[in-house]
Design brief:
six-stranded mixed beta sheet; binds adenosine-5'-triphosphate; 412 residues; VC0802-like; 40% helix; binds magnesium ion; Rossmann fold; single chain
């Protein structure tokens, strides 16, 4: 049975923290809308007629081919700032009779999909959740839920049953100022804030597990990112560099295209290996990485550095090592993983799909010059004295920077 009123498919995009941002709220919402529109354009087969608009605290997408709904919802779920997404039906009429008819139609389709009832299938259990954003509407939310529930039970007698404790289908009927949404499912987004709302950072991206997660976490809080990767070619392979590009492409799926600056750290590593105590190798290399990353940050107008360090995880990440590493840069260093255990970092890596690529066994530049017994309690004066054996550091830095290759990495 078709309803008399118009009924069409919509995607409802909810945002979490963005809605708490007070005066900045319209700016945050506009940015989020821009990201949703950009995601729309990337899905083949979604024609120009598709519209995404801000509407009373939600972003609503209309006019796309129904079979593209799931793909679009998946794409929106990767946009930072999005809390959840539902694919639903929209009713233009707010008459109770039309709402009931719309809900019946929805549940009829659900029953068909579940094959209910049959020899192996008990009636589909459901519960109606009424929500009334427009408080001027004469019927209360519980009254609306009761009417809709009764209409569904009557129309689909034997096929459905009410279960208020653990229903298979939670049927949401959301009455708004101009329309009604009906839906029964929510796809979770990652939350966070839209990219571009919180400065720009240069992320030091290795091929490991941690730095992609750190990058993702900062981007999730709205920071735009560019990546710097150091290799030690020919001691490290081209395949190892491709692995970093692959990781960057996965991150670009969340952040939009990323500029990846790759360069050869070997000139610095060779000088350190030749002129400095072996136990200080790791920390001296880390200081070089930070200095060079900062130069790139200043050139690219980024105000932050990002690393995947976690306190105590390895020799270069003891409290003393981090303190000595920090001393070479003036920019704030973001270390979102600092207080996290490895198992929790791995969980995120798996959730965001970087893990499988990170564990591919290609060598990192740091492992090429690994000291047998790294110094885990470096003292700044000693490190600086050892570094002075290298002479004018800017000459080595220039040599490393001269090997820079910038790749624009698109989403995977
Ligand atoms: P990851 O899993 O991110 O490689 P890690 O546990 O191997 O980290 P370290 O080798 O001490 O730890 O590196 C600490 C941080 O230094 C990394 O998280 C990353 O931000 C940066 N870093 C390490 N190696 C490189 C590299 N080759 N290029 C760019 N940054 C690097
Ligand atoms: Mg590493």
């Amino acid at each position: 049975m078709e309803t008399a009123c118009s009924i069409s498919e919509v995607i409802i995009v909810r945002y979490g923290e963005v809605s708490l941002k007070g005066m900045n709220r319209p700016w945050f919402e506009e940015l989020l809308l821009k990201r949703v529109r950009a995601a729309l354009k990337k899905i083949p087969g979604v024609q120009n007629g598709t519209q995404a608009v801000r509407e009373d605290g939600l972003i609503v997408v209309r006019g796309y081919p129904d079979e593209k709904g799931k793909e679009l919802a998946e794409a929106f779920s990767k946009i930072f700032g999005v809390a959840s997404i539902s694919i639903g039906k929209e009713l233009a009429s707010r008459e109770l009779g039309d709402i009931c008819a719309g809900a019946v139609e929805w549940m009829k389709r659900v029953c068909e999909q579940k094959g209910a009832p049959g020899e192996t299938r008990a009636p589909v259990t459901f519960k109606v959740f009424g929500k009334r954003a427009d408080k001027t509407w004469p019927v209360t939310s519980p009254e609306m839920a009761a009417s809709v529930g009764a209409a569904v039970l009557k129309a689909l007698c034997g096929k459905v049953a009410v279960d208020v404790h653990s229903p298979e289908v939670s049927l949401y009927v959301h009455l708004r100022r101009r329309n009604v949404f009906i839906y029964d499912d929510r796809l979770k987004g990652f939350g966070g804030l839209p990219i571009g709302t919180n400065g720009k950072g240069i992320t030091l991206l290795s091929g490991g597990i941690d730095s992609p997660v750190a990058t993702w976490m900062m981007a999730k809080r709205g920071m735009s990112v560019e990546a710097v990767h150091f290799h030690s070619y020919p001691f490290t392979s081209k395949r190892a560099e491709e692995k970093v590009e692959d990781l960057t492409a996965i991150l670009a799926g969340y952040c939009g295209r990323i500029r990846l600056h790759s360069m050869n750290l070997l000139p610095a590593q060779e000088q350190i290996a030749e002129k400095c105590p072996e136990a200080m190798m790791t920390i001296l290399i880390r200081r070089f990485m930070m200095r060079i990353a900062e130069q790139i940050a200043l050139r690219e107008k980024a105000g932050f550095l990002i690393t995947g360090e976690s306190l105590g995880q390895v020799a270069s990440q003891t409290a003393a090592s981090i303190s000595v590493t920090d001393k070479v840069v003036g920019l704030p260093v973001m270390r979102p993983l600092i207080g996290m255990d490895k198992v929790d970092i791995i969980k995120i890596a798996q959730e965001i799909d970087t893990y499988e690529t990170s564990i591919l066994p290609y060598e990192d530049c740091c492992t090429v010059f690994l000291p047998r017994r790294p110094n885990t309690s470096p003292v700044l004066e000693n490190i600086e004295r050892a570094e002075s054996a290298l002479g004018d550091l800017s000459i080595i830095e220039k040599e490393v920077l001269s090997s820079e290759v910038v790749t624009i990495v698109n989403p995977a």
